[in-house]
Amino acid sequence: MGDVAAAAGVSAQTVSRVVNASPRVDPATRARVEDAMALLGYQVNRAARALRTGRSHTIGVVVATLASVGNSRMLEAVAASAARRGFALTVVTLAGSDGVADAFAQLHEQGVDGAIVLNEATAIAGDAPVPAGLRIVAVDAPRPLESDDAATPFPTVQSDHAGGAAAATAHLLGRGHATVFHLAGPTTSFAAGERERGWRETLAASGAPAPDPLRGDWTAASGFAAGVRLAALPGVTAVFAANDQMALGLVRALSEAGRTVGDDVHVVGFDDVADAADFRPPLTTVRQDFDALGEAAVTSLVAAIGGAAPAHVTLPATLVQRASA
């Protein structure tokens, strides 16, 4: 830092301000310092910064698996948001640990400033001991009642899963279907439970019967297996699938059984993954804004690291109409 200061003709304190993105630097001076940094190949020593500030500028992420599209998209969004703030990322999957408590311990030993727990992993995060000083944000975790904020001691971020499912179900009922079948996600998933709740409540409000849901594991293969069973039932004319991957397998099974998706049977998914518009037929689905979710999760964690009280954020989920319904 002293070499950069000498090359730029400024004080070491000015170099420090530039490195830490302080607004208290004249633009021309900032440019001169940045040119000197580039010329000399100066890089911030993260270890030295951590010793000085007590923070590592590293965020941990706990995730059950990276095999599902939703988890991968969330991790991608969190990584992008963290990078914009100058945070590095450390990822622990539950397959590589002995549960959430062990994942928290691993991250704490690595000196992360805080951790984001994604999706299915949140089902057991609330009961896991959190090392002292480790700040946590949960994505897709039960939000506490207003009268019982202590029920969730850390911030939460989620999409409006129930609202999105309600919109999907209402859309199918509005197409004239007597009822809507449901291909649900795993029982361990908070998001899957909320989507099932939105489906049930919408059917009940309309007076439509609620068929027993079939259950998958978020994969296209499980959607195909459920689709084979549904295709054999003549009364199935509308299906709401809890995610787009299961909807993909469902559409294939229905098509192979001679059912025309988009005509004699309508299908709606959830997530609006990148390929949803290229399914055959293009998939009507509920869009989650993964980038906004990642941004909200990192923003909440940075605030928690700074000592802010837990906040609970719910983002809208919107219906995207295409040819499958």
Number of strands: 12
In percent, how much strand structure appears in the residues?
A: 15-25%
Record the strand order, biggest sheet: 2-1-3-4-5-11
Low-pLDDT stretches are: 145-149
Summarize the main sheet.
6 strands, parallel
| Class per helix and strand makeup | alpha/beta
Share of helical residues: 40-55%
Envelope shape: elongated
Radius of gyration: 24 Å
N-C termini distance? 61 Å
| H and E string | HHHHEHEHEHEEHEHEHEHEEHEE
How many separate helices?
A: 12
Estimate the mean pLDDT confidence: 89
Topology:
Layout (H helix, E strand, L loop, with lengths): L1 H7 L3 H8 L7 H14 L5 H8 L4 E6 L5 H16 L3 E6 L6 H10 L4 E5 L3 H4 L9 E5 L16 E4 L1 H14 L6 E4 L5 H17 L7 E2 L4 H12 L6 E4 L2 H13 L9 E6 L12 E4 L2 H16 L6 E4 L2 E3 L5
Parallel strand pairs: 1-2, 1-3, 3-4, 4-5, 5-11, 6-7, 6-8, 8-9, 9-10
Antiparallel strand pairs: 10-12
